[in-house]
Every structure is written in C-alpha cells, then in structure tokens.
Amino acid sequence: MSDGQEEREEQEQRRKWESEKKDRDDDLERDWERVGERERRDSRAAEVEALDAGVRAQSGQRTRRSFVIAAAAAASGYGFYRWIDRSPGDQLIPRPLRKMLEFNARVSRGAFDERGLAPTYPVARSMELRTNGNYGLKMNLVPESYRLQMVGVEDAKRLPQYVEDVTAWEYQYVAKQDAGPVEHDTKVAPKAAAVVGNGSKAKADPNGDAGMGEGPMMQGGAASTMVGGGGDKKNEVKMPPAFEAAFAALKKAQGNKRPRGQEEAGMSDNTLDPGTPGLLLTMDDVTSLPHHELVTEFKCIEGWSQVVHWGGRRLADLIAKYPPERKPDGSLPKYVYMETPDGDYYCGFSLQACMHPQSLLVTEMAGRPLAQWHGAPIRLHMPIKYGYKQIKRIGLIAYTDRRPDDYWTKLGYDWYAGL
C-alpha cells in the first residue's frame, strides 16, 4: 500500500471518528437539554402548584369574608329599611325621610338663598299652560264678589280696606258654564263623567264635577279629585244621625257657609278663626300696582314643564304697599301663608321667596285675562318653586312667624319645593 493511500485511509478514519464523536456529543447535549427541560418543567410545575395552593387558600378566606360582609350589609340594609318603615309618621311619610327633606331644603337655601333668577325666554317660545289640579276651583267665582284678604299688615286699622273680621266676607259662586280644557293631574284618580250646560249646549265635562258644587265634596264627603273619590252618591257612606245633627249645627254656626278644607289633605291649621281682623282688597287695589310681564318656565313635580307668558303684579310690590307688622324686637315675620277662598288649597312660603323679583301675582296668561280654570282672578307664579306651590285663586295672604301649613306637604311632599 502506498503512502498516499494510507494517508487517505487515515484521514477517512479520522473524519469518521470525528463524526461519531460529534454525534455522541450532540446526543449527550440533547440528553442534558432534555434533563434540564424536565427539571425546569418540574420546577415550574412545583411553583405553579404552590401558587395555586396559595390562591386557593386566599380565595377560601376571601370568599368566606365576602359572604360575611355581604350578609352583614344585607342585614344592615334591611334593618335600616325596617327602622325607617317603623318610624313615626310625619305628614304621611316616615319621620327620617321628612328630616332628610328638611336637611336638603337647608342645604339648598344655604347655597342659593332663594335669590337666584330663573331663566327667561322670548315670548315666541311660550305656550298656553295646561291645566293640572282644580283644588279650590270646583265652581266659578263671581268676579264682583272677589276680595283678597290680608292679615298681619302693619297699621292695618289706618287703611280704608280694614275690617274687623275678614272671615265674614262671603264669596259668591256659580256653576261652571264651560268645561274647560282636559286636566292632566296624575296625582289623583280619574274623575267621574259629567256634563256642563243644558239642552243643546250640554257637553262632556272632562274635569268630572259638572261645575255644580253639590256633590259629596260640597257636603263634606270625599271630593271628586281625591284618590278613590268619584263623586258618586250611591257610593257615599251614610253618616250616623248624631253626626249629621252635629254637622248641621256646625254649618249653622258658620252661617251655613260651605265647610272648609274639603279636599284630601283636609283643613289647614292656618285657616283663620272667625273674628280675625285684616284688609279686604279689591282687584282695583291689586291692579293699581305696577304691571310686569315674565316669560319663564313652569315646572311640575310630575316631571313636565312649559314656557309660559305671564302678566301681573309683583308680590314684592304688594308686600311693600301692605308691609307685615314687625315683632316687638323690630324684626319681620319669617313666613307668608296663602289659601283659596274656600280654604281647600293652601301654601306656605318664606317671606324672602315672596320678595323675590320674579314672584308674580298673575292676572294674565299668554296676553289674555286669566281663565277661571287657571285660577282667576289672581294666582301665583314663583319660578324658583315647583308648580304645586304656585297656588291658584288666592283668597288670603297672611304674614306669620310660624311655618305655615301646606297642602301637599301634608300628603308627603317637600315644604320647600325649591328649584
């Protein structure tokens, strides 16, 4: 064998050996990698297991804690509800809710002080105010018989309108000849069907009382606008004879006048006692004040609102002309009380709200004289208050230092009613 051949064979064997060595090294490296991967996998699995165990332990603790907290919260909420529900009532709502309403009123009064001006609008945006609630408007008032009673006026005796007993004045009423627009009051039950007018002029009365004023409401029974009341005589409860006799005696003692406070909230605690002195103002006395017009938004507690064109006299001007009598310490009374001539509807206000420059004694609406169903001859517009405070057909304005009674407050609503 030649040297060249031996050298080639030797090189071939070396390459073979190096290849086998490389394969063995690769196999060994792969084995080490597999071992390392297995160890890493086992280590990772152990770590995951440890983490899972920790999570399960914490989850169990937190789940139990959550159930305990949730149960405690539910028990507290139920206990709070039961406490409110079993609390003594205060004007048809639990006392805690009444206290919360009063707290909200204090916060609102403290923040706004009843001095902010309501937005005004162009006349073109205004519309006819829809009717909503006919409390104190069951019959039409004879305009010539209207007098605005004022009580608590300073030096009232020196004025020509002074009388010894404003309650002796008798308002005159007539049955409705016009049904008027359909009412939209959602706070009361639907009224019974009725008609107004006679013969060919008879037509359905959407307000349901036929304008007669002779139904059970006028006799001291359920008013047609009360919840559950329909003005149906066949559903009336017969009064015991002794009660009827006592009721007849009371009417006679009152000069056979219509009983006061015949709506759901009953008679006001601020209704004047017989023999109360004061002023009897005519419409001329009121309309002699400067005339003002406003286009503001009327907002109802039921959730609707309308922009309305109002015309009339500022309540502040009336108060300036007939100011309240000062107390011995020189301060003014804090409140003003208003009610309809029959005492069926009534509202109380702070003197400051009445002095607001936008508080208006309305005699016109949409450029026309105020209609009977809107509270003629005088109603109140106070755009810083909800609509249920804007009393129609004002018969009495009285100054007082005690917070006055309020119709809807007695039925669970807020006395302040501020916007």
Automatic annotation (TrEMBL):
Region of interest (Disordered), ranges: 1-46, 252-276
Biased composition, class Acidic residues, residue ranges: 1-10
Lineage start: Bacteria, Pseudomonadati, Acidobacteriota, Terriglobia, Terriglobales
Stretches with biased composition (Basic and acidic residues): 11-46
Domain Oxidoreductase molybdopterin-binding as annotated: residue spans: 280-408
InterPro entries according to UniProt: OxRdtase_Mopterin-bd_dom, OxRdtase_Mopterin-bd_sf
Protein name in UniProt: Oxidoreductase molybdopterin-binding domain-containing protein
